[in-house]
Specification:
The structure is a single chain. 17% of the residues lie in helices and 30% in strands. With 374 residues, it is of the alpha+beta class. It has 3 domains: 91 residues, Immunoglobulin-like (Sandwich); 81 residues, Immunoglobulin-like; 153 residues, Collagenase (Catalytic Domain). Strands 5, 6, 8, 9 and 10 form a 5-stranded antiparallel β-sheet that branches. It is rod-shaped and about 125 Å long.
Length: 374
């Protein structure tokens, strides 16, 4: 070949056509691809693909691009960079590179194809939780931020890492089941063209009482008369009533059992012995006299006929009677039903009747303000 080119040049020079001969000689050569073009980047919706033109001879070639979807040209997609559209999802993308150099025929090469997947929503900042971590308060989820703004976010509240059934709102009112437990929220982000993605907030500290402790009242337990009920159960269940976030602890009063002394003496009394505390007490009911909060053993074991008639549990009656008599020590007198169908105030004489209210073993919102002690 070298000999032929040289001979041609000599002939051309002899004829005085140097420039024409050089152009004619180069016209038959094309730009040569020595390493194939490639598509770089993640082939998914929301990402950007970049054409690597490969390598060519001569090395000073310039390039133009044309993107293909399933082998067909994409109108207007003639830059080195291409952002896959929703219509590209599930299809194969490739790029055609045309290399040009002065004095050479253009060279053309096509990359391997890459199938486009759905995009991925990545959490930039995980969700957070606002609101008081206290029983009776409401938590509010903040969805965090994502690599692409979601079209929709949904929520699932978790208690100790387990889903809370039906808890799918941004706001979550803390109930009894949440007391003493740890809460978090899982956010699911969705957007057309993207796989849905989830991100979970940090776990809260354990959910506390409605309000901090404002007063500590110590009490001890005594008996009066012949006791047939289990005294250990009485002590345990009375303390459970005092510790329950629905009870007087929700007013900021912590009732703490001690071996002796304190401001209250909680008495489990044989029914016949209840009037011994005061002529105003009856062998049929429980009573409060001075520092003595007296629980009638018959009522403790059997509740009252009215309570049983409305189908409430014995355990709820025990909550109610301990709360009611302790409420007297805290300064409350008897209260009446505020309206038919309403929860009865715990200071209503529910053992005797409901006056159209619903049986209720716990202080109502109106009773959470403790007027005085003793």
């Amino acid at each position: 070949m070298r000999l032929l080119v040289t001979a041609g040049l000599v002939a051309a020079l002899a004829l005085g056509g140097t420039t024409a001969a050089l152009g004619a000689e180069a016209h038959g050569a094309s730009v040569s691809n020595t390493a194939a073009p490639r598509v770089t980047g993640e082939a998914r919706f929301g990402s950007v693909l970049v054409a690597d033109p490969g390598t060519w001879e001569p090395s000073d070639a310039t390039y133009t691009y044309q993107w293909l979807r399933d082998g067909t040209q994409i109108s207007g997609a003639d830059g080195r960079r291409y952002r896959p559209a929703q219509r590209d999802i599930g299809h194969d993308l490739a790029v055609v590179v045309t290399a040009s150099a002065a004095g050479f025929t253009d060279g053309v090469a096509t990359s391997d194809a890459a199938r486009v997947a759905q995009g991925v929503l990545e959490p930039d900042k995980r969700p957070t939780i606002g609101g008081e971590r206290r029983f009776g308060h409401t938590l509010v989820a903040r969805p965090g931020t994502w690599s692409s703004k979601p079209a929709r976010v949904s929520y699932q509240w978790l208690r100790n890492g387990e889903p809370v059934k039906g808890a799918h709102s941004r706001r979550y009112p803390l109930g009894l089941a949440d007391f003493g437990e740890q809460m978090s929220v899982q956010v699911t982000a969705t957007k057309q063209g993207y796989h849905s993605a989830r991100s979970t907030s940090a776990t809260t500290e354990r959910i506390g009482h409605r309000v901090p402790v404002r007063h500590v009242v110590r009490y001890h337990v005594e008996t009066r008369g012949r006791i047939t009920a289990d005294l250990a159960v009485f002590k345990q269940q009375a303390q459970e009533t005092f510790d329950d976030p629905r009870g007087w602890r929700g007013s900021g009063v912590e009732l703490r059992r001690v071996a002796r002394g304190g401001g209250i003496t909680l008495v489990l009394s044989e029914a016949s012995q209840v009037p011994s505390f005061s002529s105003g007490c009856s062998a049929q009911w429980s009573c409060r006299v001075g520092r003595f909060v007296i629980i009638n053993q018959t009522r403790w074991r059997n509740a009252s006929p009215m309570w049983n008639q409305v189908g409430r549990s014995l355990r709820d009656y025990r909550h109610m009677v301990v709360n009611h008599e302790t409420g007297h020590w805290l300064g409350w007198g008897h209260r009446s039903c505020p309206g038919r169908g309403s929860p009865a105030p715990v200071m209503q004489q529910q053992s005797k009747g409901l006056e159209g209210c619903r049986a209720n073993p716990w202080p109502t919102a109106a009773e959470r303000r403790v007027p005085r002690f003793g």
